[in-house]
Amino acid sequence: MLIYPAIDIRAGRCVRLVEGRLDRETVYSDDPAAMAGLWQEKGARWLHVVDLDGAFSGSPKNIDIIKKIRETVIIPIQVGGGIRDLKMVEELLSIGINRVILGTVAINSPDMVAEACKKYGEAVAVGIDARDGKVAIEGWGVTAEKNALDLALEMKSAGIKRIIYTDIWRDGTLQGPNVDAVREMARNTGISVIASGGISTLDDLRSIKKMEYMGVEGVIVGKSLYDGRVALEDALSLADLALEENAC
């Protein structure tokens, strides 16, 4: 299982929001690239970067910072937030981003997702953010009349091999992941799932780890790392142990 430290960028800073709310923001660093370097130094094998300004506005606003992160670390990076056309997908991949995450366009322009998937394969993933089971888009400001599982199945038909699933009510709350929703997503889609939202303890990570055999391949960890509730080194050790157990 892969552990993805989260780097959420807003106004040039590394922040964490609670339930995606701008009025519940905590700033953890004025230098997201330095934070990326720190996570790499501590052993991270992937980074999850979100341009929050881009997610709220509809187009990425922190490309220069994302470039600096790319120049700072050698580990793979996945990026989401406001990526709503093929040109931006191409730009991010051209600067060395390893995977782009499409969100809102999965609802508003599924043909574009299919085209991106056909052109770039597994360098394209879809982020499905859910509130009470319904898909939220446009920086979580709009709730679509579509069930998260239904969207995942549609994206599978479009050629997507991997989704990042976030339970909005859990995100940044440290209340634990929505295990049932993650299990349903993995079991009923048959595609790879990266879980996000609510991780607060190593036990939470263990609960996700138990679903590896279903296709839950990773988990995004944010606030609990920044607050020191979970040490990245311990999380990585747990992930490695899971791989060894599954190999036996």
Number of strands: 12
- The percent range for strand residues is 25-35%
Structural class: alpha/beta
Q: Remind me, CATH topology?
A: TIM Barrel
Please provide the ordered H/E string of secondary-structure elements: EEEHEHHEHEHHEEEHEHEHEHH
What is the CATH architecture annotation?
Alpha-Beta Barrel
Q: Topology of this structure?
A:
Blueprint: E1 2-10, E2 13-18, E3 21-29, H1 32-41, E4 47-51, H2 52-57, H3 63-72, E5 77-80, H4 86-94, E6 99-102, H5 104-108, H6 110-120, E7 124-131, E8 134-137, E9 142-147, H7 148-157, E10 162-167, H8 179-189, E11 192-196, H9 202-209, E12 216-221, H10 223-226, H11 232-247
Parallel strand pairs: 1-4, 1-12, 4-5, 5-6, 6-7, 7-10, 10-11, 11-12
Antiparallel strand pairs: 1-2, 2-3, 7-8, 8-9
Highlighted features:
248 residues, alpha/beta, TIM Barrel, eight-stranded parallel beta barrel, 11 helices, 12 strands, 29% strand, globular, disordered C terminus
